[in-house]
């Protein structure tokens, strides 16, 4: 079974094409800057050279068409005919309370995804047009929706409800949803394999530290708490997002600066986090370099970032009443020994001790970085959200 995985954003469509027989990644790429004169695509067949070209692309239908044309291209394609595509798996950011697992997309599901536009206005509409594009260009090919929120639907009400008037939950579904679910679920499954124990017997804390950052407490394979909330703004410090703040700050800023709602949104989502504190960049690699060169602001940004992660790890040890392992994943989590070490600093009282030598090994494999005596193991597990979406898609298809 060959599965095309699509991640449709506002101005880009990322794709990965899998042969699920052996879970082989056949090709991948991106169509970038949709609707802009500088639009281009990148396409790569695994193990071969990347093809990059400028293109004219004014909407998502045209973007998906470019992807399909690349897949069947005689020179740099990977299949003869688009009919070899058995299914399309879509990353859908928000499934609200309606979706606790991946589903085959029907007219009714499309309407339900539309109903969630109000919960994720920056993401779901683009995910939706990606589905429409495939309906048009690949008629009859099953499409599967894999939701970022679905894995967290198991979080109990006492953990997902905000202490606001209950009527706001009833009227507007205001509650914690959580995101990055596909990644947290994937690395939890991999961690169980790595530890050689059934997932159902493990308590895990998974730290997804990329541009967006979130942390999840997983008990017996089930998400019981996560740091992102009603939107992906809550929780950890991220590249440009602030994470947890006192909500009264917004009212205060409104009072003293008369800041508009649009500007507030930009402030919290685009100008805060690592970028906001350092005043330099949202990119962790650059911040780490700046810290090494003596930048006080870069050091401060990293201090705030790591302290927040540590605080969450410690609190999730409480949520789970201890844990078998803490797992680091995504761009920062997989690649930065400095950040991992600082996030786990002085947690030996709670059973977490990172081994400096193991931690500083630069590697891309799944590995343990805790001391042999550490009660809670610390692991690095590379995430693979695309493969997880492909797996979910083939599972849903087989079950249907
Ligand atoms: P996204 O959330 O967009 O998928 P990624 O998971 O790719 O992002 O993570 C991007 C972040 O990872 C950036 O801040 C980048 O600087 C950081 N990163 C990548 N490699 C390293 C590295 N070797 N050391 C530190 N940070 C890194």
Topology, pairings included?
Elements: E1 2-8, E2 13-19, E3 24-32, E4 40-45, E5 51-54, H1 60-72, E6 87-92, E7 103-104, H2 107-115, H3 124-137, E8 143-147, H4 157-160, H5 166-172, H6 181-195, E9 203-209, E10 213-219, E11 222-226, H7 248-257, H8 261-270, H9 273-278, H10 284-292, H11 296-320, E12 325-329, H12 330-335, H13 337-343, H14 356-360, E13 367-368, E14 377-380, H15 385-399
Parallel strand pairs: 1-6, 6-8, 9-12, 12-14
Antiparallel strand pairs: 1-2, 2-3, 3-4, 4-5, 7-8, 9-10, 10-11, 13-14
Bound molecules: adenosine-5'-diphosphate (ADP).
The rough form would be described as globular
Major beta sheet, specifics?
8 strands, mixed
User: What is the number of domains?
Assistant: 2
Task: Using the CA coordinates, give the radius of gyration.
Answer: 21 Å
Report the uncertain regions: none
**Proportion of residues in helical segments:** 25-40%
CATH class of the largest domain: Alpha Beta
How would you name the CATH homologous superfamily of the largest domain? ATPase, nucleotide binding domain
Widest β-sheet, arrangement of strands: 5-4-3-2-1-6-8-7
CATH topology of the largest domain: Nucleotidyltransferase, domain 5
Tell how many strands the DSSP assignment holds.
14
Instruction: Classify the secondary structure makeup into a structural class.
Output: alpha/beta
């Amino acid at each position: 079974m060959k599965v095309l995985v699509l991640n449709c954003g506002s101005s880009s469509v990322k794709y990965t094409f899998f042969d699920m027989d052996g879970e082989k990644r056949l090709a991948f790429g991106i169509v970038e800057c949709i609707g802009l004169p500088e639009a281009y695509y990148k396409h790569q067949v695994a193990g071969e050279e990347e093809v990059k070209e400028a293109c004219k692309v004014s909407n998502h239908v045209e973007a998906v068409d470019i992807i399909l044309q690349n897949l069947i291209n005689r020179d740099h394609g990977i299949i003869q005919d688009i009919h070899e595509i058995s299914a399309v798996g879509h990353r859908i950011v928000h499934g609200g309370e309606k979706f606790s697992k991946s589903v085959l997309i029907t007219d009714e599901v499309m309407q339900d995804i539309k109903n969630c536009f109000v919960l994720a206005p920056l993401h779901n509409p683009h995910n939706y047009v990606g589905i429409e594009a495939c309906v048009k260009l690949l008629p009859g090919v099953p499409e599967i929706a894999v939701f970022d929120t679905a894995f967290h639907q198991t979080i109990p009400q006492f953990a997902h409800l905000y202490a606001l008037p209950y009527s706001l939950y009833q009227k507007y579904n205001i509650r914690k949803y959580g995101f990055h679910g596909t990644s947290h679920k994937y690395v939890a499954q991999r961690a169980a394999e790595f530890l050689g124990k059934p997932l159902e017997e493990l308590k895990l804390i998974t730290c997804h530290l990329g541009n967006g950052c979130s942390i999840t407490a997983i008990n017996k394979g089930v998400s019981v708490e996560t740091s992102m909330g009603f939107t992906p703004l809550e929780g950890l410090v991220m590249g440009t997002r602030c994470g947890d703040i006192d909500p009264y700050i917004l009212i205060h800023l409104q009072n003293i600066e008369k800041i508009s709602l649009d500007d507030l949104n930009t402030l919290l989502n685009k100008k805060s986090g690592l970028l906001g504190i350092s005043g330099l960049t949202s990119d962790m690699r650059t911040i780490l370099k700046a810290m090494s060169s003596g930048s006080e602001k870069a050091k401060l940004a990293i201090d705030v970032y790591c302290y927040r992660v540590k605080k969450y790890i410690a609190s999730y040890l409480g949520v789970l009443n201890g844990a078998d392992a803490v797992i680091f994943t995504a761009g920062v989590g997989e690649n930065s020994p400095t950040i991992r070490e600082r996030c786990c600093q002085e947690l030996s009282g709670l059973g977490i001790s990172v081994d400096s030598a193991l931690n500083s090994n630069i590697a891309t494999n799944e590995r343990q970085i805790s001391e042999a005596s550490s009660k809670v193991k610390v692991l690095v597990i590379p995430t693979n959200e695309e493969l997880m979406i492909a797996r979910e898609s083939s599972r849903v298809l087989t079950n249907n």
